């Protein structure tokens, strides 16, 4: 039985101010930032969007930008050509079909170009405060190490198991805590195992101990 209270009390002691680190002031800025964050760090995305949103301060001005203009704005990010296409088409759809307001419904969100389940979950949790858990590489890695999920589980299975083991009111905060823990402490390479107060339940740490025997 996983002691979720112990785990999240510890994570909160490490990261009492865990929050979304993408910078935004408007709903579409958040959605675009999340789309851009695929396989990129939030820090890098923020560097790009600061200039991009300054140059295109409204959804209408961004809609008038050419695909090449958008590519040039985001070319320092990975997969920039695909992301530029998604942004260009998503902006058009938002203006033409939703009066420039991003809908709350996940079924609608996931029909937008570049918006999958994870992106929709992040947006809904951050903008609309809907109880969602988005599973990125950090959340998946930490969840497996701490026993919330199995090593071979895909992101859908990890999300399903987290939802089952946590209360709905914990979802958003748990998402932020798991991301911060995975990003800054329980890293993919060289995690801070010796300093960690959860190493007694960590599968990675205990597998290392077993291999040394």
Mean pLDDT: 96
Secondary-structure element string: HHHHHHHHHHHH
Rg over C-alpha atoms, rounded to the nearest angstrom: 19 Å
Per DSSP, what share of the residues sits in E-state strands of 2 or more residues?
Answer: under 5%
Number of strands: 0
> Which residues sit in consecutive blocks of at least 5 with pLDDT less than 50?
none
Q: Quick one: overall form?
A: elongated
* Number of discrete helical segments: 12
User: Percent of residues in helical segments?
Assistant: 55-70%
Find the structural class using helix and strand composition: mainly alpha
Q: Biggest β-sheet, characterized?
A: none
Distance between the termini: 26 Å
């Amino acid at each position: 039985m996983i002691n979720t209270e112990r785990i999240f009390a510890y994570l909160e002691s490490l990261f009492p101010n865990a929050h979304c680190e993408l910078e935004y002031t408007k709903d579409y800025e958040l959605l675009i930032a999340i789309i851009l964050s695929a396989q990129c760090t939030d820090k890098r995305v923020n560097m790009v969007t600061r200039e991009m949103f300054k140059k295109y301060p409204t959804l209408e001005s961004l809609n008038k930008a050419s695909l090449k203009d958008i590519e040039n704005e985001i070319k320092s990010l990975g997969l920039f050509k695909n992301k530029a296409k998604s942004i260009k088409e998503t902006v058009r759809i938002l203006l033409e079909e939703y009066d420039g307001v991003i809908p709350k419904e996940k079924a609608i969100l996931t029909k937008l170009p570049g918006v999958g389940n994870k992106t929709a979950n992040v947006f809904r949790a951050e903008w609309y405060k809907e109880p969602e858990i988005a599973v990125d590489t950090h959340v998946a890695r930490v969840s497996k190490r701490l026993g919330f999920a199995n090593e071979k589980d895909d992101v859908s299975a990890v999300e399903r198991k987290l939802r089952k083991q946590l209360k709905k009111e914990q979802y958003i905060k748990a998402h932020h805590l798991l991301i911060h823990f995975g990003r800054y402490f329980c890293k993919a390479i060289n995690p801070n195992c010796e300093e960690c107060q959860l190493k007694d339940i960590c599968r990675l740490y205990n597998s290392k101990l077993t291999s040394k025997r």
